[in-house]
Amino acid sequence: MSIHLDLDSLSVERLAMALSGRPGMFKLFYDTEDCGCNGVLVILVVTTPNATDKVVQSEPYSFWVDRQQEQQFDSRMRLEADPGYPSFKLSSDAGIFSSNIRIKDIRIKSSEE
Question: Whole-number mean pLDDT of the chain?
Answer without folding.
Answer: 89
